[in-house]
Design a protein that fits this description.
467 residues, alpha/beta, Fumarate Reductase Iron-sulfur Protein, Chain B, domain 2, Rossmann fold, 3 domains, four-stranded mixed sheet, 12 strands, 52% helix, metal-binding
């Protein structure tokens, strides 16, 4: 997927003027946040579980090498194979190699953001293997030659009319805007691919070191068909998705669905523990796990390690006012919203994604709803620091910070400047209480009014209240 993160501002302007997108995003604002709140209210111990999950994830990351080795040992004991891939290119090549070994012409794919991250579909197609997305949202996007705009609801930027148009164009069936009809049509079209596929590729929500198992959590049956019908099942997962035991996995399952869709549990929670054994009625003959690093091991022990706690629930973006206004495509790469604003600079470089950690109001809602308590605003500030250190931030920003620093390190001058500025803003705002034009502040006032201060400066009020 082409990196368009440097174009965030242009993308956002286009998104704000796209009436169709804004209508679709309106469904998000009235959907996931309310359902999450209701689900959390029904579970009194939810915050206690968040603390436990945070602590467990921290423990896992401190001993990640040991759990990865245990996971590999048990996958092999179950008859499977683990492939270690440091880069996205390594992962793509290994998956293609497995497909070629099976003489695969068609592969079915369950929903997987890691395969989006490594740009697997385009790579397979260029090398003679046809991937077929089987998740309904991903299938719609594949027909439209589009990319996900959300990590659990990939087609959330579309309306029902967009789906009807795509199906009518590609399926050559009478057009219908009835959701039930469209689902039946998709099921019918995909069924032949499930049966014909040589290889099935899925992601994994968690990897269980104790048993060498992987699990996918879905609300459609496509994931089960993808991993049981073909002769070969390939699991593609990033390295941080490990949990020590099956019991530990259930802790995260209790948090995941409630945080993501507001469900008590996802409809399908399917464990895979290797290839089909003698006596098994179904399952693949070959089982491969492709473990993708792609910059994650560099995060271990760094100021960004806490990001590796992420369980991909999407709660941060579901509650983010910036994401809710401009949608996922504006972020210009695979991972949108607050979590993408931390992950994307790590994976594509801060020089290509510097605008993302700056695209935040720092309202703190993302941290407030995160099921594993990732301090996302703090991590975005770390990226802002790195951007500044590398002299990548705009000259106007650097000059403004230097000017502020000059006054902030001289308390008497700072208090004088704040007092004068307070009076000037109130005078400029007049009776309206706001101004639409300020010297040296056009970046703000070109797009919004500047409200007048409501009274004395903070330092004046602090002094009066603490006499």
């Amino acid at each position: 997927m082409q990196i368009k993160s440097p174009e965030f501002k242009q993308n956002a302007r286009i998104a704000l003027q796209d009436a169709n997108l804004q209508r679709a995003l309106g469904n998000l604002k009235a959907g996931f946040p309310q359902k999450r709140a209701a689900a959390v209210a029904r579970l009194p111990e939810f915050d206690q579980l968040r603390d436990e999950a945070r602590d467990l994830k921290n423990h896992i990351l401190e001993h990640l090498d040991l759990y990865l080795e245990e996971f590999e040992k048990n996958v092999v004991a179950n008859g499977g194979t683990v492939h270690w891939c440091r880069t996205a290119e390594d992962a793509r090549k290994k998956i293609l190699e497995i497909c070629k070994d099976q003489d695969a012409k068609t592969v079915t794919k369950g929903k997987s953001m890691v395969t989006e991250e490594i740009d697997l579909n385009d790579y397979l197609e260029k090398n003679g293997v046809t991937p077929v997305e089987t998740d309904l949202g991903e299938y719609i996007l594949q027909l439209r030659k589009d990319h996900p705009s959300h990590i659990i609801a990939p087609a959330i930027h579309l309306n029902i009319e967009d789906v009807a148009d795509a199906f009518h164009e590609h399926h050559k069936r009478p057009k219908s805007n009835d959701p039930a009809h469209l689902m039946r049509e998709a099921r019918e079209m995909l069924r032949k691919h499930f049966v014909a596929a040589d290889v099935g590729i899925t992601g994994a929500n968690f990897l269980v070191a104790e048993t060498g198992s992987t699990i996918i959590c879905t609300n459609e049956g496509n994931g089960d068909l993808t991993q049981t019908l073909p002769k070969t099942h390939i699991v593609v997962s990033s390295i941080e998705k490990l949990v020590p035991t099956l019991e530990d996995m259930t802790l995260f399952l209790r948090l995941l669905a409630r945080s993501a869709t507001g469900q008590e549990f996802t409809v399908y929670n399917t464990l895979s523990s290797g290839p089909r054994r003698p006596g098994d009625q179904d399952g693949p003959e070959n089982f491969h796990v492709v473990l993708v690093d792609n910059g994650r091991s560099d995060m271990v022990g760094s100021e960004f390690q806490e990001m590796l706690r992420c369980i991909r629930c999407s709660a941060c973006m579901n509650h983010c006012p910036v994401y809710g206004a401009v949608g996922g495509h504006s972020y210009g790469w695979v991972y949108p919203g607050p979590m993408g604003s931390v992950l994307t600079p790590q994976m594509v470089g801060i020089e290509n994604a510097g605008l993302l950690p700056n695209a935040s109001t720092f309202c703190g809602k993302c941290e407030e709803v995160c099921p594993v308590r990732i301090p996302l605003p703090k991590l975005m500030r770390h990226w802002r620091d790195k951007e500044y250190e590398k002299h990548l931030s705009p000259t106007s920003v650097r000059s403004g910070l230097a000017l502020w620093s000059f006054f902030a390190t001289r308390p008497k001058l700072y208090r004088l400047f704040a007092s004068v500025g307070n009076r000037f803003l109130r005078f400029k705002a007049g009776k309206k209480g706001r101004t639409s034009k300020l010297p040296l502040a056009s970046a703000w006032t070109d797009h919004r009014d500047m409200p007048a201060p409501s009274g004395k400066t903070f330092m004046q009020q602090w002094k009066e209240q603490n006499r």
